[in-house]
Amino acid sequence: MRMGTDKGLLSHQDKLWAQVAADKLSALDLPVKFSVNPLQQETYASYFGSEQLIVDDSSLDIRGPLLGVLSVHLSNPEENLLLLACDMLLMETKLLEKLIHSFKADDAFDAYIFTKDGQQEPLCGIYKAGGLKKIAHLLQTNGLAKHSMKYVLSNLRVCETAIEDQDYRYFSNFNAHAEINGL
User: Fold this and answer.
1) Domain 7-177 falls in which CATH fold?
2) Model-level pTM?
3) Which pLDDT tens digit goes with each residue over 146-164?
4) 158-177 in b/e burial notation, b at 16+ Cβ within 10 A?
5) What is the pLDDT of residues 53-112, one digit of tens each?
6) N or C: which end of the chain has fewer CB within 10 A?
């Protein structure tokens, strides 16, 4: 069963999920913005301030995470993006640091992500401005056959870092209330 509610506004250890993710990025001295849809805008503004929000671009005819990613890109087209889904509650800053290190060590890629059992984890990654520009162009020219983040990655040069077994739990996405109990 899915949450049936806005996951970013759920509470974990007396913090909103969105704030938990923001704190991890802030700990790395990264500026934080929240990608929201128009219906979320007022509520999120009351918690975080409207200057921290990027509202989905209504000109984009897509949905899901890609809508948020491209909306953020179009609002800051020269900026690289470190994406962290708010439902990755257990993510550790040490893993985000590892991602940043990969990015700084070799800038020949469009995206830097982790893989778990050979499967890409697209909702925790660095997406370079040039790669996002490619995806926006593909979307505008009807060259993007699917709108999933994994399909997007298939159109980019991707640096993949395998997750070690002991770190698997940090990549858990929480989608049901029962999954959170006991955290």
Assistant:
1) Spore Coat Polysaccharide Biosynthesis Protein SpsA; Chain A (3.90.550)
2) 0.90
3) 999 999 999 999 999 999 8
4) bbbbebeeebeebbeebeee
5) 999 999 998 999 999 999 999 999 999 999 999 888 888 999 999 999 999 999 999 999
6) N
Helices (H) and strands (E) in the chain, counts: 7, 8
**Cα 122 to Cα 65: distance, rounded to the nearest angstrom:** 10
In whole angstroms, give the CA distance from residue 183 to residue 179.
8
Annotated domain spans of the chain:
7-177
φ/ψ of 164, rounded to 5, equals: -75, 150
Cα distances (angstroms) measured from residue 54 to each of 36, 40, 74, 156:
6, 11, 10, 24
Residue of 179, 183, 176, 69 lying closest to 125 (CA atoms): 69
Q: What is the residue-averaged pLDDT of the chain? A: 89
CA distance 81 to 30: 10
